[in-house]
Specification:
Layout (H helix, E strand, L loop, with lengths): L10 E5 L5 E9 L4 E6 L2 H9 L14 E5 L3 E4 L20
Antiparallel strand pairs: 1-2, 1-5, 2-3, 3-4
Length: about 100
Amino acid sequence: MPRKKVKVGDLYEVDTFARVIVHVKITQVICDKSYKCVLVRESDLKDLRNASVHIEKGTKPEDVEGYLYEWQIKKSLSRGGKRRRVVRGNRKKEET
């Protein structure tokens, strides 16, 4: 299996050990295949609390730090600067 290119600052959808899918932002590379990350969405905090993860109410997602392994990454949410191509055809002006 080819190795994933994980970059600091990119957003990823990951599967946690509590079996909750959350969106995280990579903040630091620890080893070759492990990373430090923070949560991005407020709804992920609620989902983790419902899965019996101890997170106090009133905590901001940026304050919840965790560890991530490469095999937990489901997909990348960052576009990486790719632009979509817009195709415009010949449009005729409507005459009224």
